[in-house]
Write a structure and sequence with these properties.
Membrane topology: Single-pass membrane protein
Structural class: alpha+beta
Strand order of the largest sheet: 1-2-6-3
Largest sheet: 4 strands, mixed
Strand content: 5-15%
GO cellular component, one term: membrane
CATH topology: Cytochrome p450
Number of strands: 12
Family: Belongs to the cytochrome P450 family.
CATH class: Mainly Alpha
CATH superfamily: Cytochrome P450
CATH architecture: Orthogonal Bundle
Cofactor: heme
Number of helices: 12
Shape: globular
Helix content: 40-55%
Protein name: Cytochrome P450
Amino acid sequence: MIRVLKQDIIVINSEKIAKDFLDHRSNIYSDRPYLATRDPYGWSFNLAWAQYGDKWCSQRRIFHQTFRAETALVFRPVQLRKAHQLVLDILSAPHDFSKHIQKFSAAVIMSIVYDYDIAPEHDHLVELFERGNTLALESLTPEASSIIDAFPFGKCLPEWFPGAVLRRKADLSKHCAMQMIEEPFEYATKREAMGSSTSAMVLDLLRATKDVDDPSQLQLSKDTCATAFVGLPHATTDDDNYEGFFIPKGSTLVANIWAIYHNGYAYPEPDVFKPERFFVGGKLRGDKSTESLAFGFGRRACPGRYNADNSVWIAIVLILCALKIAKARGEQGEELDFEPTFSYGVTTSPDPFPCSITLRLNVDIHKLSTADSFE
């Protein structure tokens, strides 16, 4: 345990301890740390950042209605269509494969939630969400929060006042957050009014609540749909004891996923690409070793994880089935080696790297262009 700015912070490097706290005692470990920037910057609506309470439970319930494991299969046709387009996009511009994968992720999410098909390039709503998430990650940090705590009058200064940076940032962030809530929801509302029979989160909510005359219920649905989930610290709502250690109420707990997955005892040579570590006798191990902790723990685990797993699985299968991926070659035909680098942040991803991507000889490009060719 460390103490920073009067805040107790516990960093968890063990999978067992993380699950003991965040899974098995989730009744008191499901809160979020207090951030002074959350309300004035417009992000109190976001389920991922919201304090644990009645509103949070209502929002979580809405998510589970759409994204629980047994209903995730409803969206498989959407995921298949978007994965087909991903393969075609990669074939059309192999050097931009990283951008195509990002586009695929956004396309699936926007279609499942809002029944919205994104534009091939520079989609307005996608750029809006990207801008909003960037503003949220910049403002919802302990550093930004500590500035507001130290200078609370800063958020009350008029925009024209010299040095009123906090106020200007807050207004910009709040405006973007409101756009994220209203614009895609308005689009989905128009789709529902036009008689769309597609299964999407917002459309299903509108159909289920069309006879409910309660503005607060509509706002709750808007807020829930605009949520983007990221791995965030937990906070305690009560004092606790764990194996002789006292955990005071209000403590912040951070699950160090990197350390957990780099445990040399559980994962020998963790930095080496060894997919065989998850197989026994040619079959996937049946234990929890293949469980992804990146989706979070307990009641704060990402409710969209089943859809995310399905999307990734479908995309991988179609890519491996249709495309041949190999090392890039130089002018003399020699294979080009490279040292992989990574981008770090809320998530870690490999930087673009040179490779050769071509269509497999036994794949018909015309059949590949039809949405049902792999069903």
